[in-house]
Please model this.
Amino acid sequence: MRKGILTLIIVAAFVIGAITGAGGMYYGKIVLPMRKAEAMARQQREEFDRMIRRGEVTGVKPGELTVKVEKSGDPAIVGRVITVQLDERTSYQEGMGFLNLMGEEIDATRYLKPGMKVDLLVKDGKALAVHWEKPKPGEQAAQQPPGQPGPGQETQEQGQKK
Model:
């Protein structure tokens, strides 16, 4: 009888230990890292949201863009005019197409004009990305002065000279 009780206690202790160990390992290896990842993702999303700006271009200079902010993840910036720095790490995107490769600097004055609506991703006063919608063919003609070709277009005279 005593051997049976002792065996039962040992088996029960073993089973309880195995369950506790498996539960602790599950929590330590699966649940805890998942909670940390969710917290980090939430923090990064909040930081990303604070970096977003949308507005109207008021001025463009080489290496510099001035925008009147209409929407932002940071409410303190809405309605203000901000100037951001443009450099070789800035990505330029017209519609769905990228205009430059990473590390390639382009002349923003060629593409951006006052009055255009742009989306910016800004960190520490530097634009990481600039996006604008590709103008529809009728809108592009309205923006260009008469006789001036748009980017990538030729006038008839230029085409005949070649």
